[in-house]
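Session log. Operator J.P. requested a structure for one protein chain; no other inputs attached. Running the standard single-chain path with token output.
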Amino acid sequence: MASTSREPLCGYCAKIPFDPQTLLNLCRYNDPWSLGSGPRVQGSHCPFCKLVSLVISERDRIRASPPTILTKASEVKIYWEVSSWQNHRGAFGVLVETAPDSPDVTARTRTDYDKYPIFFSQDTVLAGTSDWHCCLKPFLEPKLDHGMVFSWLAECSTGHGHGCPHPTSQGVDLRQAIPGLASLRFIDVRRNCLTEQAVVPRYVALSYVWGGASTLKLTKANKAVLSETGAFKLGALSSSSGLPRTIQDAMALTRAVGFRYLWVDALCLTQDDPDELETGISVMDGIYECSWFTLVAAGGGNADFGLPGVTQEGRGRQNLCVEVAPNVRVGVHITLDELLAHSVYRTRAWTFQEEHLSRRVLYFVDNKIAFRCRRLELTETWTGDRSVEVSKRISESVEEAVNMWEEPIRDLSIILEHYSTLSLSYQGDTLRAMAGLLRRFSHAFKSEFFQGLPTAVFDIFILFTRPEHGEEVSLQRRNGFPSYSWAGWKGRKWLTQHTWIVWYTKYPDGDTKLLWGPPHNDSFPPADARYVGYRDRRPFKPPTTVTLNESNTQPSNYFSTAKTFPRSYPLLEFWTLAVHFNIHIQGTAKVKGDRDRGRANIICHDPLTSHGYVQMDGLEEMAFFESEGPFEFILLSEEHVCHTLYEQCRSLVSYHIMMLEWVDGVAERRGIGMLDIDAVQHSLDPGPVWKQILLA
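Structure written below.
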């Protein structure tokens, strides 16, 4: 029924045919409708203009940005799109084009609010005669529909076949399902207590942000009490040691959808038992992957936020649509990936592998509930054909890298780029929070990991740097980890690659071992030529103009252990070519967003003659870069002209290099870059030197 108090459409919006049947035949950018200038739209009383303004303000809210105030130079446009990622649902899109401030610039900037499409409501579609299969619900009830969740799980488990395989571990002995575990502890939501199982049951896992909330944790002291029937009933625990709201809601939902067991890290791993904690963390991938589904609490910043909708008081009724014309209601739908991308949950390192290794996930985010498996995405805001093909999702690259395992070098590169931006309360957990994923990649590479780097392809992964599209000026040093590993730096890293270096590791007790080689990794397939590893090792070939004795590749007793330790991690020991150059730091090197941020040219004396570049690490933190040169660089590997990682590359054009700083006889990485092959002969004093390096 039309509202008598509804404002009429403005002259601009009245030209839009709010009829699903008419719009179905239109394509995106086929004569988009102009709504006039930005200030006109944001100040209009027209109901559709208000909805367009809501799209803009919702993006500000989700992204925690200052309010967007459009200027007179901006024009708001509406287009109609039938999108494949939405299973060919029709939706309105909002586009803002802004004229340039400078007369020297002719291109208009475009902001496409494509993650905030506007859909017709269910009651609008039912009132018409068109065969419309997909639309928004008019509103959401305060309480979650448990039957809907059950139907989502059933649709996946019974209809997706090999695309979404069931956990093969159900009913299997734990030692077989998750090697390293003899038993696994769960919350029994029927008996309201902890229980241990030696056979994998059908269970739910919880992934959430601890935050600053006071969280009840399992300890040696309270283990017996929490294992007694009724231990988790309301009133059974003191107020100071009560269950956080998120865990309470997770228990209630687990019970409501017919499951008995819930796994929660804080209560299922003894937090003051280092051995049990380390074992549990190392197999975290198996724990989440073996669950029937995972509850992801992405709606708040701590464990007391809860799962809105599980209980009646968890959230209020939400109106999703507004009436813009008689019998026509439309509403804004924010995509799940957009909501997650700007949630506190997605900023945390510990939750990264928990979410991405789970087969099925039930999300609680922005007071809404959604479901995602490896085939489909479902949300409670939709009616009719609600599904979205997962293969079209924005987060496809990470999901594919985690789950496909077809190209481990590429996959690990993608994952590390994302993971290295995430937050940790304790930086020492950098590798522990990813232990499960690294274990899986160890199987994929058929080799061990050393300080977070796969030893079989060590020379590739030591070349990490800040990507060109990132916002950081440079990487920032992370204490407790070596500078040669991505784990030793904060910020996005993009992994780039023939080398001659034979890597050795020097341990705190003075023992030195070969890092990797086929004889040391029996499981590595000798015939697998796809791997760029030690089988291709060959002597260094210096440029024809340089004479060197490069026969030394094994560690000597040159380095004493007196000054190199105490360090909590092994050092790298190896021989390679060292050269010396000055650097010229460009004026925009410290400007965020500039394409040359954090970069310096490698020069001899003339700043206008560049022999390469170095992407500096920790530029804003270290006075090292302000000191007088020359600076030392070591050659790591060759850069050839080729199109793929595995093909034969013939044309050598430059070297991958690392910038070093020496302190008490030990070097640390201070940057990564490229050096022209002809530049080696121009090295400043003492010239090119074949040198033994001890790298922390």
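Operator note: The first helix runs from residue 20 to 23.
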